[in-house]
Amino acid sequence: MAEEFVARPPAGREFRASRRVHLGDVGSNAKLRLEALARYLQDVATDDADDSGLDQYRGVWVVRRLAVDVRSLPRYHDEVQLATFCSGVGPCWAERRTTMTAGDRVLAEAAAVWVYIESAGGRPQPLEPDFFEIYGSAAQDRRVSGRLRHRRPEPGAASRPWPLRDSDFDVLDHVNNARYFEAVEDELVARAPGFVVGRAEMEFRGAVERGVSVDLVSEMRENDGAELAAWLKADGEVRVSAVLSARARP
Question: How far is Cα of residue 3 from the mean position of the Cα atoms in its chain?
Answer without folding.
Answer: 12
